[in-house]
Design brief:
The chain is 43% helix and 18% strand. The protein has a 6-stranded mixed β-sheet with strand order 9-8-7-10-12-11, sandwiched between helices. A 5-stranded mixed β-sheet has the order 4-3-2-5-6, with helices on both faces. A 4-stranded mixed β-sheet has the order 1-13-14-15. Helix 6 packs across helix 12 and helix 17 packs across helix 19. The longest helix is centred in the first third of the chain and has 20 residues. The protein is elongated. The two termini are 28 Å apart.
Length: 557
């Protein structure tokens, strides 16, 4: 008895793939044949556009903070693609002594000037198009800040000293372009100050800076090593006093809290090590209040030297990490929050987005942009990639009665189809493994860690092997093993329907019954390679969908 019948012809949602002429998946020319053909979830660039072949710019951005200075270098085509190509981090402790003396110390200024001289020399040697320097809390608050700025300008650098509100605005802009939240609280804790801001409609609404930086609070309160209980209590009392009003707002408006800066990233890394977290990714990690409390308690009991030995903690933060951790612990407690999200992006990235994107400097689709941005770094055959994506969409929809999945799974499958061959940039052999590595080697903003794991595994198993979570099992949810198996099966069949990369299969007919799925390949001539390779996936299909897969050919009329 037939369970279902779905026949697709040129007049419906199957598209013929011409061997010559414009690519039907060029987003400038391709139009779906019927309304049943959904718009692609991530669009390919037209053939005539190649990544970085336009007005490529090399932009350097320096964030001169109270504790560290960091130079990042971006190569970008404004509004299209970008990539981080270099970074130099220096521990400068510019804000050392500021809390007690109100002035920048001579040694702190010399360390900062030395770092800036290094960056200026690097910019000249590497022929950067532009170098922008942003100074924050220490330069802003110090009595002798103007004197320091004069010394900086002698190096030939033009520096912008950000106000507390400007700093907060840049942080919100980074979060708006690196998460999918419409509304959130955004916190950035540095060496000299902390900013807490409200993001509404992906725009900065309000915020201010507080004198609660990790260097500043360590000098003010934590004189003992390890700190005494009374010192910890005094520090937390001070934080509650300074942030009383805003924390009351946080409690009554319990939105997601996104935190940025080296302090919270190090706290998250320590929490991940203690839990044997399988991913080496911090951006997008959810640090629960329970885990934060555990890490801060552990750090407060150790001496600075003992902390320096901890894996996951940068050695030059060992003496100030406790103060920063206590601020976050107080914010979560007093704000009634159960945890916070870690942002790997901050003021530097916010400044970059102002250069990269036109006003209001917001990506229209955070997730879609970063998936396409990854593809742009490792571009592959557009025609082959487009056809595999199309087959994935067709098979996903035609087999919906068997899997019952929705838009989230279809989007994930489409993204995997787009990225499935990026490992070819490394080499053909094991390119499925290379692809998984490229996907998992850095955070993809807009995706949760679970989604990124599934994406990496789909690429890993797009051509062979039995799909399984492996070491990533703890990141996945119930049902994800079966979800991985089914989506990987669809991707693999789509890949083998395009095995010759010649576009020979022009359409599909699918017939569903209670025990079988009959897949008929429509082509001008018998596509023996595609039929043979697809038939080899019958066992995997049976495992995924509980049906026998029959593969046949019918001539295209």
């Amino acid at each position: 008895m037939l369970f279902g019948l779905a026949l697709f012809h040129l007049t419906s949602s199957v598209t013929r793939f011409p061997k010559t002429g414009p690519d039907p998946y060029d987003p400038l020319t391709f139009q779906p044949h019927t309304e049943t053909m959904a718009q692609a979830l991530t669009e390919l660039e037209p053939h005539k556009l190649k990544p970085y072949d336009g007005a490529v710019q090399r932009l350097g951005i320096v964030d001169l903070g109270s504790g560290t200075a960091r130079l990042v270098v971006y190569v970008h085509e404004p509004g299209k693609h970008f990539r981080l190509v270099d970074e130099i981090r220096e521990s400068v402790r510019l804000g050392e002594g500021l809390a007690t003396q109100g002035r920048l110390s001579r040694s702190g200024m010399q360390r900062a000037l030395s770092a800036l001289k290094l960056y200026a020399d690097f910019a000249q040697a590497t022929d950067l198009d532009e170098l922008r320097v942003y100074a924050t809390s220490a330069s802003r608050d110090a009595e002798n800040g103007p004197e320091f700025m004069r010394e900086v300008r002698k190096l030939g650098l033009q520096v912008q000293v950000l106000s507390g509100e400007d700093e907060a605005r840049y942080g919100v802009l980074a979060v708006a372009n690196a998460f999918t939240f419409e509304e959130a609280w955004v916190m950035d804790l540095g060496g000299g100050s902390a900013q807490l801001s409200r993001m509404e409609g992906r725009q900065y609404r309000l915020g201010r800076a507080y004198p609660l930086g990790a260097v500043r609070l360590t000098e003010m309160f934590l004189g003992s090593n390890p700190p005494k209980k009374a010192e910890v209590e005094d520090l937390e009392r001070y934080v509650r006093k300074e942030m009383k009003e805003v924390l009351a707002q946080v409690r009554t408006q319990p939105l997601p809290l996104v935190a940025m800066g080296g302090t919270v990233r190090n706290l998250a890394k320590l929490a991940q090590r203690r839990k044997d977290y399988p991913l080496d990714l911090v951006h997008g990690y959810y640090l629960s209040r329970e885990d934060l409390e555990e890490v801060v308690g552990m750090l407060a009991q150790r001496t600075t030297e003992q902390r320096r030995q901890l894996e996951g903690l940068q050695a030059d933060r060992a003496d100030i990490i406790v103060a920063g951790g206590l601020v976050y612990r107080t914010v979560l407690r007093e704000g009634g929050l159960q945890g916070l999200w870690i942002s790997g992006q901050g003021v530097r990235e916010g400044a970059f987005y102002r250069e990269f994107l036109p006003a209001p400097h917001l990506l229209g689709d955070v997730r879609g942009f970063y998936v396409r941005n990854l593809f742009a770094r490792y571009p592959q055959d557009y025609g082959h990639t487009a056809r595999v994506r199309h087959f994935c969409r067709l098979l996903f929809r035609l087999l919906a009665p068997l899997h019952g999945y929705g838009q989230a799974e279809e989007q994930l499958l489409d993204e995997a189809a787009l990225l499935h061959d990026i490992g070819m940039s490394v080499g053909y052999y094991d390119h499925h493994k290379h692809g998984e590595y490229l996907i998992m080697s850095a955070a993809i903003p807009g995706l949760t860690h679970r989604e990124q794991v599934l994406l990496g595994l789909l690429v890993r198993y797009h051509r062979k092997g039995e799909p399984r979570p492996g070491v990533y099992r703890s990141v996945l949810q119930d049902g994800d093993s079966k979800r991985l198996l089914r989506l990987a099966t669809l991707l693999r069949i789509s890949e083998y329907l395009e095995r010759s990369r010649a576009g020979r299969v022009e359409g599909l007919e699918v017939e569903l019954s209670s025990k079988q799925v009959r897949l008929t390949l429509l082509a001008q001539e018998e596509p023996w390679v595609e039929m043979s390779e697809t038939r080899k996936q019958a066992r995997l299909f049976q495992q995924a969908f509980g049906r026998e897969l029959l593969v046949e050919w019918a001539p295209r009329g």
